[in-house]
Amino acid sequence: MADTTTIDPRNGFNSTTKTFHSLRPPAPLPPPSQPLSITDYTLSLLQSNPTSSPNTDFLIDSTTGHRLSYSDFIRQTHSLTASLATILPPHGNNQVALIISPTSFHIPVLYFSLLALGITISPVNPVSTKSELTDLIRISNPVIAFATSAVSSKLPSSFPLGTIIIDSPEFVSMLQNSSSDVIHRKVNQSDTAAILYSSGTTGRIKGVELTHRNFIAITSNSHYNRFVRDEKASPEPQSVWLFPLPLFHVFGFFMIIRATSFGATLVLMEKFEFNNALKAVEKYKVTYMPVSPPLVVAMAKSDLVPKYDLSSIRMIACGGAPLGKEVAKSFSVRFPQVDIVQGFGMTETGGAVTGMSNPDECEHYGSAGRLSCNVEAKIVDPETSEALSPMQQGELWLRGPMIMKGYVGDKEATAAAMDTEGWLKTGDLCYFDYDGFLFVVDRLKELIKYKAYQVPPAELERYLQSIPEVVDAAVIPYPDEDAGQIPMAYVVRKPGSKISEAQIMEIIAKQVSPYKKIRKVAFINAIPKTPAGKILRRELVKHALSGASSKL
Predict the structure, then answer these.
(1) Most buried residue, 26, 55, 290, 458, by CB count within 10 Å?
(2) Are 336 and 407 within one domain?
(3) Pair 48, 166 in one domain
(4) Which residue stretches does the UniProt record annotate as biased composition, category Polar residues (predicted)?
(5) What is the CA angle 215-220-226, rounded to 5?
(6) Is the pLDDT assigned to residue 203 strictly greater than 60?
């Protein structure tokens, strides 16, 4: 335990250990030795919530309006658990279930059922190709697969326990198992709950191994340190959530658990489309939206927004990638009643490990908030490994009970990412300010090396996105004989805009140091991104180097 006398109460920095500590009240955690699955933990939080009701809608299909109540969700979960228990007997080692499906009502039920049985879930992107699936299957080694009929043909037929088709009558009957017995299996908190896949934006894809304890810790953080709009009032419930997040990604996966613990209503979108999202907000009186930065940009700039009544929205949680200060400000001008809660998290942390807890903290535009409870951090000089003080930039290191077990079957990658004291090296260039707010500058590996200078692409992207005629932008390194690399921008113009390469370069040049100037611009229809909103820079670099005039 840190000596509290050496911790700065303003920012949590311990000048002796050079470690940043959370300023939040600690969240209670069950003893690590207590057998407990994330399913049982989440449902216990739900049942202890005085505002939750079995008749509350848990899921709403944004397209059809079909609804599933909490009582039906819990009944289906118990039924499916009983059905799957006959197929998946208790096993000494963790058994893995591969799940490949678009967003649907069945997926949360399937997740909670498998996790209750101690089965490790491994959800994958339903648009994955056969070759991509081969790599993912090699990493996770699943014994069974769950897939929709539309994508099952992409799977091999070699799973020991076969493949169950989620949209089949047989699966529906498993949800309606008449067995009155509730299945209880001993699940240790140290058991692996999920294998989720890193985005692969900076190298080969890796399977991130997260335990039930990891998810219990991250859920406890969010449950017991909720956003408070008025300090004299109780935390405001985010009762109706629009849910455009893919459920196979860590952001969507964790948010399903978080929403369930709160007893919130989720309006699910199988496929995100901006106009349909605005319709859903108006129709279902959505109060809360977990989103990635591109959606915030669209809401701040789109001409479609004034056509809908979006007055019900009270909060937006933005994660997955940094949100520019200028974009956040322009959003707040358009939506003064909405708090933008920004945070930082990774697949390797199971969810957000920084965030904002009140409207005053939301005013720190451009930051990712303060450390969540039970989290420690360091800012480390990548060259000297020296731990740094507030306002000094370096690699962000994190430690806490939510940090992953490691990368499945990849000891080398695990050793490179985690040291012997449990610190996770994030690969992100960051700093904490004097008030303990985290600022993400860029990915260390994505810094552009212009002559002797380092240029962060994310900084230039924020300036580009502040230009009214720019819908979206990405900055990449472009090889240059004299400079080594120069910043090159890919820009999506607003429909009808004629803004030129020279105009864009001139606008940016007035806002940055000479070495950060954008020196090449290409126009594009859309910026390629991961489901979490992270820019796929490697695709843009490949496109730029090919000299192709074709559109991505």
Answers:
(1) 290
(2) no
(3) yes
(4) 1-20
(5) 130
(6) no
pLDDT at 365: 86
Task: Let me know whether 146 and 246 are in one domain.
Answer: yes
**Would 69 be classed as within a structural domain?**
yes
Find the helix or strand (DSSP H, E) in which 121 lies: strand 120-124
205-246 tens-digit pLDDT: 799 999 999 999 999 998 888 887 765 555 554 589 999 888
Q: Which residues 6+ apart lie within 8 Å of 544 measured at CB?
A: 476, 478, 488, 490, 522
| Residue after which a domain boundary falls, among 405, 426, 446 | 446
Residues 348 and 397 in one domain: no
| Per-residue model confidence as pLDDT tens digits over 497-528 | 999 999 999 999 998 888 889 999 999 999 99
DSSP letter, residue 313 = -
Give the C-alpha separation, 279 to 418, whole Å.
44
Residue 245's SS3 state is coil
What residues make up the domain containing 405?
A: 11-26+375-446
How many structural domains are present in the chain? 3
Give the torsion through C-alpha atoms of 514, 520, 521, 526, to 10 deg: -100
Nearest-CA neighbor of 197 among 144, 147, 155, 142?
142
Residue 33 lies in a domain: no
CATH number (domain holding residue 306): 3.40.50.12780
Please tell me whether residues 363 and 383 are part of one structural domain: no
Predicted TM-score (pTM) of the model is 0.84
Spatial CB neighbours of 283, under 8 Å, sequence gap ≥ 6: none
Q: Which two tokens stand for residue 185?
A: 């299996």
3-state secondary structure of 68: strand
Percentage of residues in the chain having pLDDT higher than 90: 65
Out of 415, 446, 477, a domain closes at 446
Is 4 part of any domain?
A: no
Q: Which tens digits make up the pLDDT trace of 406-430?
A: 999 999 999 999 999 999 999 998 9
pLDDT at 463 over 70: yes
**402 touches 376 (CB < 8 A):** no
Q: Calculate mean pLDDT across residues 389-401.
A: 97
Q: Is 217 exposed, middle or buried (0-12, 13-18, 19+ CB in 10 A)?
A: buried
Q: Which residues contact 267 (CB under 8 A, 6 or more apart)?
A: 60, 62, 240, 241, 242, 243, 280, 284, 286
pLDDT of residue 3: 58
